[in-house]
Structure to design on (161 residues):
């Protein structure tokens, strides 16, 4: 009679139990520097690593079978994951825009109290597709560095002495 082969999960569980039992065994704490303890630990870690790879292989094979047999479910799952990622990124963009408005207001209030100059009110908003940026004035340099230079000159950091 043939011995039934253990499943990948059973092998993983056994390897994990062997690895943790070495940590719980009082005998190992008494002989912490012995070569036997080190060898046993290395063997247990190696077996656990192999069992982990076998379990990963098992799950990848099952995922491949599902993808081949039920492509619609796979597509629906991917679509849901993409929707969740878009929602997360929209929330992140909203938080960044809120922080940007706070920093612009802080810089504006500091500049007005220090120099008495007026800085144009900048509003940060985002449309359904892309972030909206103010249109550059004709004849002025365009791009993020030009915008930074204009902002710093308004608060007194762009002046050369």
């Amino acid at each position: 009679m043939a011995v039934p082969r253990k499943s990948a999960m059973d092998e993983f569980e056994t390897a994990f139990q062997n690895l943790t039992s070495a940590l719980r065994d009082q005998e190992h704490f008494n002989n912490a520097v012995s070569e036997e303890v080190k060898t046993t630990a290395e063997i247990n870690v190696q077996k656990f690593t192999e069992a982990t790879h076998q379990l990963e292989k098992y799950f990848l094979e099952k995922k491949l079978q599902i993808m081949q047999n039920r492509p619609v479910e796979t597509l629906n799952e991917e679509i849901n994951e993409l929707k969740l990622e878009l929602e997360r990124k929209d929330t992140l963009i909203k938080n960044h825009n809120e922080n940007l408005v706070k920093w612009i207001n802080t810089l504006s209030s500091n500049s007005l109290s220090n120099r008495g100059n007026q800085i144009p009110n900048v509003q940060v908003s985002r449309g359904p597709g892309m972030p909206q940026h103010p249109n550059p004035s004709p004849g002025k340099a365009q791009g993020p560095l030009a915008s930074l230079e204009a902002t710093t000159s308004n608060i007194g950091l762009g002046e050369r002495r």
